[in-house]
Specification:
The complex is a heterodimer. Chain A is mainly beta. Chain A is built from no helices and two strands. Chain A has a two-stranded antiparallel ribbon. In chain A, a hairpin with a 4-residue loop joins strand 1 and strand 2. Chain B has a domain of 82 residues. In chain B, the strands form seven sheets. A four-stranded antiparallel sheet of chain B has the order 2-3-4-5, with no helix packed on it. In chain B, strands 6-7-8-9 form a four-stranded antiparallel sheet, with no helix packed on it. Classes of the chains: A mainly beta, B mainly beta. Chains A and B meet through strand 1 and strand 2 of A and strand 1, strand 2, strand 3, strand 23 and strand 28 of B.
């Protein structure tokens, strides 16, 4: 991975109450 | 702003709610454009689309109702994508918005779960068994015509397809693909378009192999890939032929999906074997070998989340 690149991703599923959710992460924001 | 690999383990996550929708799978083509597919409460198939990285999700129209919902999505650019679902459903868009059902025979009326679009013309799909063997479909005509490949396996080593549901697929082109399957944790490989399948499974076990990803490394050109399975199992390949078990910190999870951005960096997600209330897991490797757990936290507390799909892409710092 070049130093100017970063990964960003999404993951989908359900919370403990069975509701649909989408989680998103951008590691450049850390 | 950190951009080094070490920062993955401490990243922050943002949550988007999608009321009334149970998302199964997600695929992004860049930092803004992506789809997630799943089902509503009935359950009928739902396709959600975003063009701003997930800040806003728009429900896209599909003609008719699709009982059982959608299970897989794969896109090649912001206009071209494929969705698969129950009852042999394959939907295709070429404008990023309108979805056309694929009707070309011989698509069996089975649950389809795996889809990988290599490019706008070449797509592989996998699904449940029909006529005594797992379903594997491919097109090189952008879906105008689909071909079911493989034949029923009569005995080990005959190049046939076993009588198990095939859950995931990853392909390099129209000839070379890997599929993974249920029950005996199958990893099958073809290099002749699916006429002959080689069983690469390193150790058969009573569990599902749920997803596979294979990528060709930039520069060196060799292959790297991962397979994720039930009961916390991860297998890794450095040549597309041989698979090696990788330890990881997951405990009691069905690992359901995996996404890699390069030969060292990948994520796997899963759902606890006790069900949704038990939560799930997010795993990440940054050296291609060692896996660490990542967490979604809210107000400093870890939140239990059961996960079924994951998609990562690379962005460039402007």
């Amino acid at each position: 991975m070049k130093s100017t690149e970063y990964a960003l991703g999404w993951t989908v599923g359900t919370d403990a109450d069975g509701r649909g959710i989408i989680l998103h992460t951008k590691n450049a924001e850390i | 702003m950190q951009t080094d690999a070490a920062s993955y383990s401490t990243q922050k996550m943002q949550k988007f709610d999608v009321p009334g929708v149970i998302p199964q799978e997600v695929h992004f083509v860049d930092d803004k454009h992506g789809w997630t597919v799943g089902a509503d409460a009935h359950p009928y198939g739902i396709i959600l689309h975003t063009k701003n990285g997930g800040e806003h999700w728009e429900k896209q129209e599909v003609l008719g109702k699709y009982p059982g919902g959608f299970n897989g999505v794969s896109a090649v650019d912001e206009k071209t994508a494929w969705v698969v679902g129950d009852h042999g459903v394959i939907l295709h868009t070429t404008d990023g918005k309108h979805w056309i059902p694929q009707k070309s025979p011989p698509i069996p009326d089975v649950l389809l779960q795996g889809v990988h679009a290599v490019d706008a013309n070449t797509v592989w799909v996998t699904g449940d068994t029909d006529q005594g063997y797992g379903t594997i479909l491919r097109t090189n005509k952008g879906g105008e015509h689909w071909e079911r490949v493989g034949h029923k396996s009569q005995k080990e080593g005959d190049g046939g397809v076993p009588n198990v549901a095939l859950l995931g697929v990853s392909a390099l082109n129209y000839s070379t693909a890997w599929v993974v399957g249920r029950v005996e944790s199958y990893i099958l490989y073809t290099e002749n378009g699916g006429n002959f399948w080689i069983d690469q499974t390193p150790e058969h076990g009573p569990r599902d192999a749920n997803a596979v990803t294979i990528l060709r490394n930039k520069g060196a050109g060799n292959l790297t890939g991962w397979v994720v399975e039930d009961h916390d199992e991860i297998y890794h390949t450095l040549d597309g032929q041989h698979w090696k078990h990788q330890d990881n910190p997951s405990k009691g999870n069905f690992l359901l999906d995996v996404s890699a951005v390069d030969e060292k960096t990948a994520w796997a997600v899963g759902t606890n074997e006790r069900g949704v209330k038990g939560g799930g897991v997010i795993l990440n490797t940054t050296d291609g070998e060692h896996w660490k757990e990542q967490y979604y936290t809210k107000n400093g507390k870890q939140v239990k989340v059961a996960l079924s799909g994951v998609s990562f892409v690379m962005g460039e710092i402007q």
